[in-house]
Amino acid sequence: MDTGEGGCNDNLLYGNDFSYAPTNGIEVTFSRNKIIRNRMFECDHGIWGGYSFSTVINDNKFGDNRIAIAIEHGQRNEIGYNIFLRDKEAIKLWARKEQPADWIYAQKKDTRSFDYTFTGNSFNSNPVAFNLNRSSQLKFIGNTYSLTGVNLKADSTVTGIDSVSGELEDP
After folding, report:
1. Among 1-15, 89-103, 139-153, whose mean pLDDT is lowest?
2. Burial of 42 (0-12, 13-18, 19+ CB in 10 A)
3. pTM value?
4. How far apart are CA 28 and CA 49, in angstroms?
5. Burial of residue 75 (number of CB atoms within 10 Å: 0-12, 13-18, 19+)
6. Cα–Cα nearest to 43, from 86, 12, 11
7. CA-to-CA distance for 87 and 123, rounded, in angstroms?
8. For 82-162, where are the alpha helices, taking DSSP H only?
9. Residue 76: which region, alpha, beta or left (left: phi > 0; alpha: psi -120 to 50)?
10. Is 48 helix (H, G, I), strand (E, B) or coil?
11. Sorting pLDDT into bands at 50, 70 and 90, what band is 171?
12. Euclidean distance between the first and final Cα of the chain, in Å?
């Protein structure tokens, strides 16, 4: 964080069970990684990806988490073909209005939350599928929703939503 170069990059987390963690099943802060075919049930956060960039989160199973995927200030991330079951919030993206002035990482990096692709995810009995704040350039392709309370919770700071076939309309 002090150099602005990022964290522990280019890891493959594949085929693991990270369930029942009291906080984060997986934490990939300040880094670029691939998270594929894992299981995260009954965690506070299934994945915490603060400041993650160019990360792929595909083909995972999430269930009964407070937040399945939480990413603060993430960029160019792909989230696809995951199953979300009874998570209070399936995916939460956000950014703070300002970064701490003494953070070298924030001085050297663009810390906006932007450029996400969500493809083929399955949301099942989630009170909130997407909770978005201060995020932009968001592409939604072929996600499905069954018994979700709210498909998209977003405030006026969210811009650049690209969605086909009205998939984000609430039930």
Report:
1. 1-15
2. middle
3. 0.95
4. 5
5. buried
6. 86
7. 9
8. 104-108
9. left
10. strand
11. low
12. 42
